[in-house]
Hints:
Layout: H1 5-8, H2 20-33, H3 49-65, E1 70-76, H4 80-86, E2 92-97, E3 117-126, H5 137-142, E4 144-154, H6 165-170, E5 177-185, E6 196-201, E7 204-210, H7 218-231, E8 241-246, E9 251-252, E10 258-263, E11 268-272
Parallel strand pairs: 1-8
Antiparallel strand pairs: 1-2, 3-4, 3-8, 3-9, 4-5, 6-7, 6-10, 10-11
Amino acid sequence: MTDTTAxxxxxxxxxxxxxxxxxxxxxxxxxxxxxxxxxxxxxxPDLDLDTGYQIQxxxxxxRLDRGEKLVGVKLGLTSxxxxxxxxxxxxxxAWLTDAMILPVGDPVPQSRLIHPRxxxxxxxxxxxxxxxxxxxxxxxxxxxxxxxxxxxxIDSRYRNFRFKAGDVAADNASSGAFVxxxxxxxxxxxxxxxxAVLVEVDGQIVDSATGAAVQGHPGEALALAxxxxxRRGHAIEPGWIVLTGGMTDAVFCPPGASVALHFTNLGSVxxxxxx
Length: 275
């Protein structure tokens, strides 16, 4: 592996022989080859959150270089249910590109994902630029043009979804694919803290939540994203899609399965596991 550590300003080669560039390359290779691996922190214990975000940003640049287009951001682990299950106690921000868009009606792309899981999301389309630091939930919501129900198909390049903070930040917060539902409404027409979702798997309701599960209100998650991105030198741009984070724990959707997410006011999102 090439030692690019000095160029990246991170000092000596870390334990395990990994550095920012080699981890970035390995994660993209795992994604492209549909290959899982153990978390890098097993070999590089000092891979922290900030270093993970450097890797994430490097891989965004590589995605753009190969022709993908930046379309927005996503939050991960915003609900307490997700944090408890994954053993991580704060949210993450990551990138969305057009290659992650799942056309409505298409099955879960099993052939390019390792172990996909589905979670319901409240989705924002931005009307105005939102730049931190110091953004409040009220300011964040004032920048939203419309609100949609949606589903994120999360994936992870780590075996059994086992990771620490630096690992998951580097892995673009377990990005996979996403789809939005049929109904978009102005935020003023909704009480997003009370907007509920029922999660149905193969005809059985298995979970439910309201928007309050997402940092108390999805607007708080949006503000968190703007403020966190400001620390990294970025802002949320007009027209961007923002996935505010899973409202419930994620559910598996293997081949042959069907998942429906029924929102109170934002319609229903249907996904099937394909063949």
